[in-house]
Specification:
34% helix, 0% strand, mainly alpha, 73 residues, 3 helices, single chain, globular
């Protein structure tokens, strides 16, 4: 109910449709958004109740994408 964009990261189809390019972290919009430095581009947004992705978490996501982004239910 709070989604502002037509993006879903909770389903494989939604994630790979527009956010993740398996094997290509530098081409994956998801990684670009979580590592962005601009408050207008970073995900989650700065005003999202102090939720943030740490550098360690971003590195794990980068590696997961590089490894082909294997999906498990």
């Amino acid at each position: 109910s709070h989604r502002k964009a037509d993006l879903r990261l909770d389903t494989e189809e939604g994630a790979f449709l527009s956010a993740i390019v398996p094997g290509k972290p530098d081409e994956s919009p998801l990684l670009a958004r979580i590592t962005a430095t601009s408050p207008d581009d970073v995900m989650p947004p700065p005003d999202s109740l102090k939720k943030a992705i740490t550098a360690e978490e971003a590195a794990k996501i980068r590696q997961w994408i590089a490894d082909g982004a294997p999906w498990a239910e």
